[in-house]
Amino acid sequence: MRPFLFLGTRAEDDVAQQEYDAVLAGTGLQPDELARVRVESGPLGEIDLDDWSGIILGGGPFNASDPDHLKSPTQHRVEAELRDLARRVVAADMPFLGACYGVGVLGVLDGGVVDRTYGEAIGALPIRLTAEGTADPLFGELPEVFLAYLGHKEAVSRLPGGAVLLASSDTCPVHAFRLGRNVYATQFHPELDPVALCDRIDAYADHGYYEPHERESLKAAAREALVVEPVRLLARFVELYARS
């Protein structure tokens, strides 16, 4: 089997490792079957799409809608590299699954708009599949309504041209979409479990996702939520796209 490629953007070593380990567990892949590049730590370099079965992009604190003058040089570089890669992926219809930050990368292509209109607080919320989502080869593995962990400042307010809406919540119209047949983005986090979400709540305490007095209540709510379905997307992605 050709390996899959995981792209991470988290600067915090422990959280970055936890995310990668969660994707390994969810996909059922071994480390030699899921290569990792931490894009925030250095240039992405040349990616030959033919080398890979598919690409998975993790989340992170970068926001496409941040004002340009507030973006660090690292964020500017990462955005440029991932935008170029995304254009190649879409043109080739390469299997791609971008979680959370995938919306910021894919959502701005071809007339799409990502802004602060539909941000959602950290927690677990019901996600509902559209008719297209129910019929989709990847998302059709999920129930029509399921709980998912999320927490984001930005979201898609206008889909890119040709995008197919797959899932929504009551407070965010675009929680997942597809470009072509094989390129996917989710706003929610398919890899998260309660422990990982609590660790991220601690790790990003100073990033403006919540007020300081909310930390413990958010963690308590995360522990109480029964989120079991979204991780199935990871194994299904491998099942659909692993190739020799």
From TrEMBL:
Keywords: Glutamine amidotransferase, Transferase. GO terms for molecular function: transferase activity. One of its GO terms (cellular component) is cytosol. Residues 49-193 form the Glutamine amidotransferase domain. It comes from the Bacteria. InterPro entries: ChyE-like, Class_I_gatase-like, GATASE. The keyword Transferase applies. PROSITE patterns: GATASE_TYPE_1 (PS51273). NCBIfam families: PRK07567.1. This is Glutamine amidotransferase. The lineage of its organism: Bacteria, Bacillati, Actinomycetota, Actinomycetes, Propionibacteriales.
